[in-house]
Amino acid sequence: MPEPPSDEDVSRQILCVFMSHRVPASGTLQRNYFFGVRDSDFQRGINKAVANNWITIDLRNRYRYQLTATGYAVGRTINPVLDAPINVRAPQKSALSY
Question: ∠ CA 15-19-25 to the nearest 5 degrees?
């Protein structure tokens, strides 16, 4: 029988979900985005990520998780291939120029 992943491994899976959805620092995800993480490991990973100050749990909705700046920085080192979040754009120039 394979050995279960450590808490650290599962917390990194949680960060990878944030990075794969290109969530910026202080961005949030709901619980249903984490379907790729096994249910039996999910709570351990969330607890470890909170202990590492990578994410916070919303006080009003326990199924909403917010990525911290620390978590964003660590997530970028785990998966540096991903680009910047999609909501960060350079200002667009007007198509009309006189």
Answer: 85
